[in-house]
Write a structure and sequence with these properties.
Elements (H helix, E strand, L loop, with lengths): L13 E6 L4 E5 L10 E5 H10 L11
Antiparallel strand pairs: 1-2, 2-3
Length: about 60
């Protein structure tokens, strides 16, 4: 819900956090056309289902 595109084979998004009040995962989603609209919040269960579909693939970045 709220995504610009329907399910694809996947694309990278940046997870910024979680809002415990709304139960949404806070993300930056490059599928949106403008920088301002890339900040999105997705329902936790829907996010988890999409992530499960990709076998929980993730990349972690650490600043040194």
């Amino acid at each position: 819900t709220g995504s610009l595109i329907t399910y694809t084979n996947g694309h990278l998004i940046v997870v910024k956090g979680y809002d415990p009040h709304t139960h949404h995962v806070l993300c930056m989603d490059p599928a949106f056309l403008s920088d301002a609209s890339t900040h999105q919040a997705y329902p936790f269960e829907e996010f988890m289902q999409a992530w499960r579909n990709r076998r929980y693939l993730s990349y972690l970045f650490q600043k040194h």
